[in-house]
Amino acid sequence: MTPVALTIAGSDSSGGAGIQADLKSFAALGVYGASVITALTAQNTTGVSGIHPVPAEFVTAQIDAVFSDLAVGAVKIGMVAQAATIAAIVDGLARWSPRHVVLDPVMVATSGDRLLAAEAVDALKSGLVPRASLITPNLPEAAALLNEAIAESEAAIESQGKRLLAMGCRAVLIKGGHGQGADSTDYLIDCDRTIALAAPRVATKNTHGTGCSLSSAIAAGLARGEDMETAARNAKAWITAAIAASDRFAVGHGHGPVHHFHKYY
């Protein structure tokens, strides 16, 4: 059977992040992608100039349309924008019970623009996090979810990961792209262990959509039947190569996109 992954996220009009990056990631990794759009953004490589949330009832209609027809192997959730959208997604997940849910708690774009309403953070934590097989915060997002300072050591990262697990998700991947040092190390944490996934840090400004693409790559692996560690390792290797190849592109004047199809052209 053809593996299918569903992304529930916002649209990026410049094509580098959000729904567009998710679908590119699925396709690059051999998985058929479906989408539920939560918000339209007027966005390019330099910033976000507008956000138009999709009505919650239409988010519900999209979810039901996809699940009633497609055999969804994994769901990736990205930008959810507002509390009403979160409630619609929570209800949809309860109704259709997908096996794997990868939640990327998107709060701020690469450009620094806020993508999640402040009043929706509690809904994200109480409604979506407990339904997630995996959440994939970067260092600032992990700190924001816990109302703590950004972790600066491996021990602090592991400690924050354990406290995020206590919110009800089954595993946490804290991404190290915002850290320092020669390596960019992500930490996969569950109730039994912590696994460090290290790769050389790539010197480039073309990192638009990196977080979206990594979480989608993990969802693609889960949809193909990989276990969580294998999916995370394969996704880390793939996104590292996509970042390393990003300078082949000359797209936009700000943070350009990663090269999702670096294996092909």
Written account of the structure:
The chain is an alpha/beta fold. The chain has a single domain, classed as UDP-N-acetylmuramoyl-L-alanine:D-glutamate ligase. The chain is 36% helix and 21% strand. It contains 8 helices and 9 strands. A 6-stranded mixed beta sheet has the order 3-2-1-4-5-6. The chain has a 3-stranded antiparallel beta sheet with strand order 7-8-9. It is globular and about 45 Å long. The relative contact order is 0.16.
Rg result: 17 Å
Total number of domains:
1
Principal-axis shape equals globular
The low-pLDDT segments are none
Mean pLDDT: 93
Protein structure class: alpha/beta
Q: Give the C-level CATH assignment.
A: Alpha Beta
Strand content: 15-25%
SSE topology:
Elements: E1 4-12, H1 18-28, E2 32-44, E3 47-53, H2 56-67, E4 74-77, H3 83-96, E5 101-103, H4 121-128, E6 134-135, H5 139-146, H6 154-165, E7 172-174, E8 183-189, E9 194-200, H7 210-223, H8 228-244
Helix pairs in contact: 1-7, 2-3, 3-4, 5-6, 7-8
Keywords:
265 residues; alpha/beta; UDP-N-acetylmuramoyl-L-alanine:D-glutamate ligase; six-stranded mixed β-sheet; three-stranded antiparallel β-sheet; 9 strands; 36% helix
